[in-house]
Structure formats: C-alpha cells, structure tokens
Specification:
The complex is a heterodimer. Chain A is built from seven helices and 13 strands. By secondary structure, chain A is α/β, with parallel strands linked by helices. Chain A has a nine-stranded mixed β-sheet with strand order 9-8-7-10-6-1-4-5-11, with helices on both faces. A two-stranded antiparallel sheet of chain A has the order 2-3. The radius of gyration of chain A is 21 Å and the shape is globular. The model of chain A has no long low-confidence stretch (mean pLDDT 95). By secondary structure, chain B is α/β, with parallel strands linked by helices. Chain B has helices at residues 17-26, 41-49, 69-79, 92-105, 206-220, 228-232, 263-269, 298-308; strands spanning 2-6, 30-37, 53-60, 85-89, 110-113, 115-118, 121-126, 131-137, 142-146, 162-165, 175-182, 195-199, 223-226, 253-257, 274-279, 292-295. The mean pLDDT of chain B is 95. Chains A and B meet through helix 3, helix 4, strand 7, strand 8 and strand 9 of A and helix 3, helix 4, strand 5, strand 7 and strand 8 of B.
Chain lengths: 248, 309
C-alpha cells in the first residue's frame, strides 16, 4: 500500500518565538525553521511500516512556501520515496490543508495517511481529523502504537487518563503522538540520495479547492509575564511561606 | 445564539471539564448540552442540574458507548442545523471529535480558546502559549474547543434543564472499539487537582521518583505530574506529563521538583496560582516564574518538606 505523509515547515522547537511589536504575528525572519516534530514521527512511522513490508511507497506532501522544499527533502532523506509541494505563500488553515490533502488522496489513492497530531506553530490539532471527515474515513488520533493487519489497522491512542485501542478499516487517517517512535536522523548518503528523489510542484489552484481563510487574526500579543517571586533559604522558610500564602 | 456543549463523561459521571465549557458557552448565548453515550441517562440528569443549562440532548445508543468520533460527529453535525455554536472541552475526547464536526460543517475550528471577546472573536494560545492570538471567525456556525483552565467552572447545582432524547446515525462501520486501559488511582486527576507535585529528570529513576515525590503528594493530597524529560526517561507513564504536549494544568499550588523549566513544560503550568520550585541549579529557568524558590538538593529538601507539612 501507499502511505501519504503531510509535513509542515515550522519554527524549530528549540527556538523561543518572539511576538512582533506591532501585534501582527510572530517574527519568523532569520529564525531557524524545521519539520514539525510530530510530522517527523509520522515520517518515521511510515518508514517503519515500509521496512516491515506493510507498505510499498511513501509520499511526503507539504502545503507551504517554496522553502517547504527543504522540509520535504528532509522527509526524503529520512526515507520517503517522493514528494509533492503545494506551493503557496498564503497561510493555509487546517481546513484548507485538509481539502488539498483530500484531493491528493483522490489522485494518489493511499491506504493510509499519517499526520502529526498538531503543528507547533498554530497548535490547532485539526488537520488529520478534518481530512478523515472529508474522505469519510476512520481516524486514529494521538497514536501511541499502530499495527497494520490486512485491511485494517489497530491504533492504540493516548487519551486523558490512559490508553484506548480502536480498530479502523483501511483506508484511514492516523495522527501521531510523541511516544509512537523516535525519529531517525538522515545519514549523509541518504541526504545526498534525497536530492535525486522526485518532487512535484503544484499550487492550490491545481486542486481547485477554495482555501480562503475563515479566521482573521486581529492581534497577537505576548502572554502576561509572570514575575519571579523570592527564593527562600531552607525548608523551614519554605514551609512558613507556603503557610503564609495559604497554600497548605 | 444557541450553543451546543459536548458533555465529557464516562457514561456514569459527568467530568469537571464540561463545566468550564458551559461557562464559555454561556458567554455566547443559550446553553444546550449534549450527552453522547450508552446507558448514560444519569449523566443527562447531572448535566441538567448545571447552572445555566437550558436543554440537555441525550443520545443513548450502544453505537455511541465509546464516543468514537466517526459515530459522534454526524450526530453533532445534524444537531448543528438548529444550533449556532458547538463547544467541546479541549480534552482528548473533544480534540478528537470537534475537528471532524467542523469539517462536516465546512467550518474552520477555533481551538483551545482562552476567552470569548464577542460572538465571533476569541483569544487562543499559539506557539505553545508563547503568544496569544485574537481571532475572528467569518463562519456562520462556530466550532470551538475550550481550554478548561481559562474559564471558571459553572456550578453543578441550580440548573433545571429539560432533557430530550436524540438519536444518532448509528454505527459508521469505519471504526470499532477494542479496549481501554485507564489508570485507576485514588489521587486527584491532574486537570482538577488543587495541588500538584511534579517531578523532573533530576529524580534520576522511577524508584527515586516514587520514593521522593509520592510521599509528599500523599501528605498534601496532591496530584502527581512530571516533565516531559521524566516521562521520556521512563520514570512515570505518559499521562503524568504536564506541558504543551501533555496536560495543561492550573492548580492552586504547583510544586516543581528537579524540573529545570523548559518552554514546553512552562506552557503547561504557568497559569498555576502559586508555583514552588525546588532545584539545585539556581540558574534554572523555573525560578524565573516561581513564586517561591528553594535552591537545594531535592533528595534532602523534599523528604524534609514532607516531614514538615
């Protein structure tokens, strides 16, 4: 089977985002960008399924600016077979991304789409569920473990308070949680090989879907800053202080 | 505006997460609640008593027992013909179902709202809470998930909502429930605990975590949390994790022990009322947001603290 893996180029998770002084957004100029960490986990899981003989081909897709090419090259270097860049400089909301992905799914007919559960920039946590709805497929969100078995997939999901296992008919959408796997680093030879792997360039117009935004961001601010309190000398002072603020 | 609130429950008891959503919904308009489950009549009765709830729709069907999104979303989408906004808690249940509903309605969801500014404008955290965005929705219907720690809880008594039965579309045939492993514990749940004692990588092992953290939590009647580093190192299970990728908590008191204070951890606990940090590294970032800090070796300080509280 084919596996489709959407990946997003986002601010590197080690970088502390800075809000622009005019309130228009977060400053991304000259900031290190990387693949969304949850998407790395998706790519890794797809590769593991291929290595286990459960999948034949992995297609990485990104909806974003020209530079999202780099993110796709990373996916190819990790082990994806080919890539599709749907190029746009506009910010595309999860609903728009899901609509584009649904069209790509129609063309490519993958049996499985593995998405990261959320992107660490807008923290929406929507695209996978929306795609599943648009396609009329089952969804296994926040996956901790997946097991493909013939025409179905069992997904152990991380839920509040524990784990839930569901069985989905294939085709299906899975979204990845942190503990699904530890993504590999691409080796230098694989980075070189990835440069020769095919990458199609498309635009949202090629898919004929309306991706005009439904939400307008009117302002972006820094969260209220919490001030440091005071340091105490020893445990007795700590206990006294806790009592003083009524904490215990 | 008529709102529809997804009630979080386990078919027997309504969960507290629902109450903050009712508060958010009441700022938009009339509050209708939706209980989706199997053998869940008692939950419907509990929801009807919540202050501010006008109507409770109860969908009681074996196909809905495990609230699989594939079965729940079409039901919600059909109820949205006569409601203007769907609000779910930003729990794993809400996050699983709401986007599926939004896509069925062709609506862009507003995730994890912190406040209601007006009928169509909300604030929400982005970049792990490092920025707060104000967003205005142009969709006719709204689909929203609500951050529980950002709204007061509606009172569980005082309401007298009418209960109405609704029927779902039955089994989608797309998915089925296999099993569930829910940790059974006497401890308060992290998201509703008044005090949380949380441990980090400095604990060094699961044995030490148990030996140092648990007695203090027991003494305080506290919930136990952990940093992602401690979870990744295998000291405690994943559902202990507090942070951007774990649980978002805002207890009265948060005691961070051996936690350095990575951005992603702070994103999950910085709204706690009183933050206490115990760490031997006086430059640890956690001290920049802690109300009370103690620079000390946790292996000495925490047992001493346990004996003195």
């Amino acid at each position: 089977m084919k596996i489709l893996v959407p990946v997003k180029r986002v601010i590197d998770y080690n970088v502390k985002p800075r809000v622009k002084s005019d309130g228009s957004g977060v400053d991304l100029a000259n900031v290190k960008m990387s693949m969304n960490p949850f998407d790395e986990i998706s790519v890794e899981e797809a590769i593991r399924l291929k290595e286990a003989g459960k999948a034949e081909e992995i297609i990485a897709v990104s909806v974003g600016p020209q530079k999202a090419q780099e993110t796709l090259r990373t996916a190819l270097a990790m082990g994806a077979d080919r890539a599709i860049l749907v190029m746009t400089d506009d910010e595309v909301e999860p609903l728009g991304v899901a609509k584009i992905l649904a069209k790509i799914v129609e063309e490519e007919a993958p049996k499985l789409v593995i998405c990261g559960k959320q992107a660490i920039d807008d923290d929406s946590n929507q695209t996978g569920q929306m795609l599943a709805a648009l396609l009329g497929w089952g969804q296994g969100t926040f996956a901790n473990t997946v097991a493909v078995d013939g025409d179905s997939i069992e997904v152990k999901r991380e839920i509040d308070g524990g784990l839930q296992t569901v069985k989905l008919n294939l085709p299906a959408v899975v979204t990845t949680d942190l503990r699904l796997n530890e993504p590999r680093y691409a080796s230098l030879p694989n980075i070189m090989k990835a440069k020769k792997k095919p990458m199609d360039e498309k635009t949202p117009a090629d898919y004929g879907v309306d991706i005009s935004p439904r939400l307008t961001t009117t302002n972006v601010t820094e969260p209220p800053v919490r001030q440091a309190g005071e340091k105490v000398e020893d445990v007795d002072a700590l206990v006294a202080k806790l009592k003083a603020v009524g904490a215990i | 505006m008529k709102t529809l609130v997804l009630v979080e429950h386990d078919n027997t008891n309504m969960k507290d997460a629902t109450l903050a959503v009712v508060t958010a919904a009441s700022q938009l308009g009339e509050v209708h609640a939706l209980v989706v489950g199997s053998g869940c009549a008692s939950v419907g009765e509990q929801a009807a008593k919540v202050a501010g709830v006008a109507t409770v729709h109860v969908a009681d069907d074996a196909a809905l027992a495990n609230q699989l999104a594939e079965n729940v979303a079409p039901l919600v989408a059909s109820l949205m013909e006569r409601h203007d906004a769907f609000l779910a808690p930003a729990t794993t249940t809400g996050k699983n179902i709401a986007p599926r509903v939004a896509a069925l309605l062709d609506v862009m969801q507003i995730s994890d709202i912190l406040s209601v500014e007006s009928e169509d404008t909300f604030t929400r955290p982005i970049y792990a809470g490092n920025a707060i965005a104000t967003v205005k929705s142009s969709d006719a219907k709204k689909v929203i998930t609500v951050r529980g720690t950002a709204f007061d809880k509606a009172a569980t008594e005082g309401g007298s909502g009418t209960i109405e039965g609704v029927t779902g579309a039955g089994e989608s045939g797309l998915s089925s429930f296999v099993s569930e492993e829910i940790a059974k514990s006497e401890r308060p749940e992290l998201t509703s605990a008044k005090i949380i004692v949380s441990g980090g990588r400095a604990l060094g092992s699961s044995e030490k975590f148990e030996e140092v953290i648990t007695p203090l939590a027991d003494k305080l009647g506290a919930g136990i949390g952990a940093s992602r580093a401690a979870v990744d190192a295998g000291y405690v299970p994943n559902d202990y994790q507090v942070g951007q990728t774990g649980k978002i908590v805002a207890p009265e008191v948060y005691i961070a022990i051996g936690i350095s204070g990575a951005i992603q951890h702070l994103a999950g606990m910085k709204d706690s009322k009183v933050i206490v940090a115990i760490n031997k590294d006086e430059d640890a970032p956690i001290f920049q947001i802690a109300d009370i800090g103690l620079v000390a070796d946790l292996f000495n300080a925490v047992p001493e603290l346990t004996s003195k509280v």
